[in-house]
Amino acid sequence: MIAIDTNVLLRYLLWDDEKQSAKAEALITDSSFVLVSDVVLVETLWILQGRKYRISKEETLAVINALFEEPNIIFEDGQTIWRALNDYRQADFSDTLIINKAKYIAEQNQVDLEAIYTFDTAAQEIEGVKAP
């Protein structure tokens, strides 16, 4: 297994630098498993949704789905990523990942999660999320 940073994943997805993109593709396609951490995924989506690329939520979903279809790409916590995708229509992906990661950790530690607090009004629409 190898792990990749955000810039490697971006070159693989965008092919905006021929030399680096070719190296990124070779790394990813020639490795048995490639770890995409939660941080790398969130950073990648921030960049893709930012000023330069401005991809939509639908395009974001397509990118994540395409990564899930890659046979050798594994996520730090794929189950939580899927749960976050279900809530993504209501809030930013990073917020939905934070919310679902908190729920997962509470579940794994067999403790009750009283609430997840945020000032983000869109995220407050998700079950278990409250304003401070």
UniProtKB/TrEMBL annotation:
Entry-linked CDD domains: PIN_VapC-like
One Pfam family it belongs to: PIN
Positions of transmembrane segments: none
Occurrences of domain PIN (ranges): 3-126
Signal peptide: none
PANTHER family found in the cross-reference section: NUCLEIC ACID-BINDING PROTEIN, CONTAINING PIN DOMAIN-RELATED (PTHR39664:SF2), PTHR39664
Protein name: PIN domain nuclease
